Amino acid sequence: MQRLTIETFEREPEPLEVYWLAGLLRHPEEGWQVRTVVRGTESGRFHMHTLSIGLLPLLTLGSRFEKGQLLQYQSAGMTGFATVPDVAKAEELGSDALPAGLYPFGENKGGVQRLLRYQTDIGTLLVPTIELIRFLFVHNKTLANALMQPGSLMTLHRQQDFQQGAPLLLHFSSEMPVRLLNHAFVQEFAWLAYDQSARKSWESVYGFTIGKPYVSFMPPHIPDSSWTFRGVQLGEIWLVLELTHVSGRQLPCQSLSFSHPAMVHRPSVPKGSASIGYKGSTVERRDRQYKVFEGKNCSRTNQHQPVLPISPKGSGFSNLVQIKKIWSSIKPSVAGKGRKKTGDAPSQSVPMVEPASLGQQGANANVLPIDLQLLESVAWSQLGTLESMAKTVQLMATMLPDMRVSMSFCKLPLGGMFSMTERRQRVCLIALFNSKSVRPVVLLDVERSGNHALSTLAISFNKDDDSIEAVIQSVLKGVVSNYGRWSNLVEKDFFDMCNFTRLPRIIPHRDKAFENHHVWKWAVRLCRKLNFPAFVRGRFS
After folding, report:
1. How far is it, in rounded angstroms, from Cα 426 to Cα 422?
2. Per-domain residue ranges for the chain?
3. Whose CA is closest to 135, among 143, 123, 146?
4. Which residues, other chains included, contact 337 with Cβ-Cβ below 8 Å and sequence gap of 6+?
5. What's the rounded Cα separation, in Å, for the pair 485 and 489?
6. What confidence score (pLDDT) does residue 512 get?
């Protein structure tokens, strides 16, 4: 598995939480950078770091890093769902308008960064402007570096005259890394480059931001948009920390094709012929880790760069179009460097750690470039039988004000029949409960489509949360390999770290409609099962 380490965060003596993004800054040599405010999760102290803008796809508020690596399952905040009548019709505010108690900054008060305020079906949504820009436009390092470069889209593809609703052929240039070109990203690029409202919105980022201490832009027209997000709540006011799914957008074309100079047909290898590899052995690819160093923001050419998956986004395009790759039969004039065909096999015991960069290309730079690849997120419509548990955990967060509660969704790892349901990956809800007086508790609840019976699983940790990521990953792999049942073998592997408790039928009749008083009963029952102090003492009896 490929992992990314941010060396700036790795130097810190404690885990960090990305707390705020305080605007963009142009460095004379290293290009555009993001002023990133982080908070130590143990000390509560705030620090400011200036990072390459190429890291912006990863820098979501509430995301947590330990030893420089992003923690996949421990981001702050609760998952929420709302409908926005029109994304373009937002009221822009300063961040000093945040209500007291919603998102405290310690002794610091006020702020100049911009928020967008929307009135929705669940109340008021406050969205940091830079987060909406990140979600809509900044899908990888390549687009992040292009964001504040006027005319940059013209260097990534061959601009053409286009009639709205006609077939669209995208001719990507060699400046666009070919490994980024999956169907999800090609759709995003087509919308960005050829939807009139989206293109104006993209170009407004530079015009509204240059020379100012804050980030601003003109949001695009997206009507009746359903949002899935992670955020914090105070009464009927939500602050969005991370957008994960936005529906309501339409692709501007009837069909979509794309080409790239590196997309060429290669002759198939005849059966029985020798495959490329190390002499005398068959070797699996070694795990690689990449470390981004401060002060090494520029990279060498972007050709053949590795691509790492990042937190997923959901496009939610309302019109489905056929997507086709256009292959060339012309051989490239210069062959790229290939894998070594002879030599000793590398050691498999220690992963290789390579210095890398998410910055722009530099004339004299020799650091390996890497990029980030767009993945598909979990939308509200995919929750299925998890909706009742999601509502229950949301209520528990308000009933336990002294406890830090976070909730997220992930897709089960592929590798078995249980991974899939109705031709899509099965979804798992992950809730983390933590406080100074209670050891971390993780709640796992897997979507039950297909009349599959599986209890909710509670994992109580015996110490602080250093092992949470490894335990969750192993448990999810175990339930897939064990055909949809929690694995006893995995539980034995971690018996000295945590206790596993199965909670059958903690929420009955998930397939039926439920009312608010049902959610209250489920929340109280679940808190008692988890032995949370307020409920053990009968506070809410």
Report:
1. 9
2. 3-256, 383-530
3. 143
4. 304
5. 11
6. 65
DSSP label at residue 122: T
Task: Give the DSSP per-residue string, 33-60.
Answer: EEEEEEEETTT--EEEEEEEGGGGGG--
Spatial separation of the C-alpha atoms in residues 288 and 2, rounded to whole Å: 5
Angstrom CA distances, 421 to 230, 343, 376, 428, 512, stand at: 25, 45, 16, 12, 19
Query: What is the pLDDT at residue 56?
Result: 94
Q: Which of 176, 156, 185 is nearest to 303 (CA)?
A: 176
State both tokens at 418: 């249980």
Average pLDDT over residues 234-242: 95
pTM score: 0.82
Which residue type sits at 75? S
The CA distances from residue 54 to 71, 144, 357, in Å, are: 19, 5, 8
What digits encode the pLDDT tens for the residues 169-200?
Answer: 999 999 999 989 989 899 999 999 999 999 99
Which of the 8 DSSP states describes residue 212?
Answer: S
3-state helix, strand, coil in the chain (%, to 5): 25, 30, 45
Phi, psi of 113 (to 5 degrees): -65, 160
Question: Which tokens is 441 given?
Answer: 């508790």
Secondary structure of residue 109 in the 3-state scheme: coil
Cα–Cα distances (Å) from 88 to 57, 126, 132, 204, 237, in that order, read 22, 14, 11, 13, 20
CB 72 within 8 A of CB 1: no
**Residue 364 is encoded by which pair of tokens?**
């004299």
Q: What is the CA radius of gyration of the chain?
A: 24
Q: What is the C-alpha to C-alpha distance for residues 249 and 235, in angstroms, rounded to an integer?
A: 30
Given a contact cutoff of 8 angstroms between Cβ atoms, the answer to whether 213 and 205 are in contact is no
Spatial contact of 326 and 263, defined as CB atoms under 8 Å apart = yes
Q: Check if the beta carbon of residue 168 is closer than 8 Å to that of residue 256.
A: yes
Q: Which residue has the tokens 């105070």?
A: 234
The CA-atom distances, in angstroms, between 450 and each of 345, 476, 487 are: 46, 19, 20
Question: What's the order of all strands across the beta sheet hosting 114-120?
Answer: 78-86, 223-234, 237-246, 123-128, 114-120, 91-94
Give the β-pairing of 223-234 and 237-246. antiparallel
Torsion of CA 459, 462, 464, 467, to 10 degrees: -60
Q: Which residue has the tokens 């490894």?
A: 470
pLDDT digits (tens, 9 = 90+) for 449-459: 776 779 999 99
Distance, in Å, from the CA atom of 236 to the CA atom of 99, rounded to the nearest integer, reads 11
Write the pLDDT tens digit of every residue in 258-284: 999 999 866 555 554 443 333 333 334
Q: How far apart (Å, rounded) are the C-alpha atoms in residues 457 and 283?
A: 37
